[in-house]
Each structure stands twice: as C-alpha cells, then as structure tokens.
C-alpha cells in the first residue's frame, strides 16, 4: 500500500468482494449521524453508515458507489468501509 502525501487509502469491502482498494484524495459518505467527508490527516473515528452514496475522488475524477449500509473506520489516513451486502456502482464517474 503506497500512499502519496496528502492522500488516503480507501478499501471498500462487501461479504462477497473487495470493491475498491486504492489511494484517493477524498471520501464522502452517509453516516447514521449525518454525512461526513474525509481528507488526509482526518481524526480517527468509527461510525455506522446508512444506505446511500459513497463518493471518492481521485484527482478531478469522482466515483460513486451505492451502499446498503455498513460500517466506516477512519484510522491513520486509511478509510475502510465494510458494506453490509453487495454495493452497486453508479454509471460512469461524476465530474470526469
């Protein structure tokens, strides 16, 4: 896992598959306590996710996944999403 300065590592895991495992610039998700965004250097935390959209940005390109809910962990510039079941990808990348 090589992460460039000012990026974070994102893993999105379902019971069936590893959907994403790469360095990203930003992650936004829908937590049960409200939406949140994560950039490099974010404080560590753990939260439950409600069903909704996970968006991650690599450079100017934004990518979206529709998640059924799950758990998000932010720890030392690494974001791990454990989705409760299969996620679906949105068609195309937004902003590209």
Descriptive notes:
This protein is mainly β and 96 residues long. It contains no helices and ten strands. The protein has a single domain, classed as F0F1 ATP synthase delta/epsilon subunit, N-terminal (ATP Synthase, domain 1, Sandwich). The protein has a five-stranded mixed beta sheet with strand order 2-1-9-8-5, with no helix packed on it. A five-stranded antiparallel beta sheet has the order 4-3-6-7-10, with no helix packed on it. β3 and β4 form a beta hairpin. It is globular. The C terminus is likely disordered.
Concise account of the structure shown:
A hairpin with a 3-residue loop joins strand 8 (70-74) and strand 9.
Mean pLDDT: 90
Specify the biggest β-sheet.
5 strands, mixed
CATH fold field value: ATP Synthase, domain 1
Query: How many DSSP E strands?
Result: 10
CATH class: Mainly Beta
Architecture (CATH level 2) name:
Sandwich
From the alpha carbons, calculate the radius of gyration and give it in angstroms. 12 Å
- Output the helix-strand order: EEEEEEEEEE
Question: What attributes does this structure have?
Answer:
96 residues, mainly beta, ATP Synthase, domain 1, five-stranded mixed sheet, five-stranded antiparallel sheet, 0% helix, globular, disordered C terminus
